[in-house]
Amino acid sequence: MDRSIEIRVAGVALSFLLATALLLTSPSRVAAAQELSQGLSVGIVDKAQVANASKAWKAFKKQLDGDVKRWQNKVRDSEVVLAKEGKALLSSKDSLSPSALRDRQLALQKRQQNLSEELGKAKRALDQRVLKAEQILNKAINDAASAVGRERGLMLVLNAAMVVHSDKSFDLTKEVAARLNRNLKQLPKN
After folding, report:
1. pTM, to two decimals
2. Same domain, 134 and 157
3. Residue 127 sits in a domain of what CATH number?
4. What range defines the domain where residue 132 resides?
5. 63: left (phi > 0), else alpha (psi -120 to 50), else beta?
6. What would the pLDDT profile of 20-44 be if each residue is shown by its tens digit?
7. 109 alpha-carbon distance from chain centroid
8. Is 63 exposed, middle or buried (0-12, 13-18, 19+ CB in 10 A)?
């Protein structure tokens, strides 16, 4: 490229940038931005704190923990029975015919496989249950935060996890938690 053309292109680009900067920082634009920011009313909600304060979530987690404990006990009991049968099979292998030993080994392996499959199904069902409850809880938190924001005439309600700094006067967390506990009595058990 010819050096004079490069200089002209650079000059045009610089002129464009300067004109844009002047336009964006003109007194009327700055005044408009300041007016907008003064009229912007914002609230901040710590959604994680609201979730942890939820009575419905606490009750759901308590029931879930009980269900998990029952499943763990059932699996442990089944494993103990299978282990005993495996030991009994090993101790009686000399007294069994090869085909009878093979049949018993296959039956024991099949029961172990069934237990493993049953455990996998239970885990997937549990995961689905938790996901569904979390979705309902999240929607209920958002609804409560929106309602509180509307009642206060706020233009914007943000999750505290997305905010680096804010004044405590913007915090709606306790009010949203109270609203959530009034509106969400329980989460689905299944």
Report:
1. 0.69
2. yes
3. 3.30.910.20
4. 40-183
5. alpha
6. 555 555 566 545 444 544 566 899 9
7. 38
8. middle
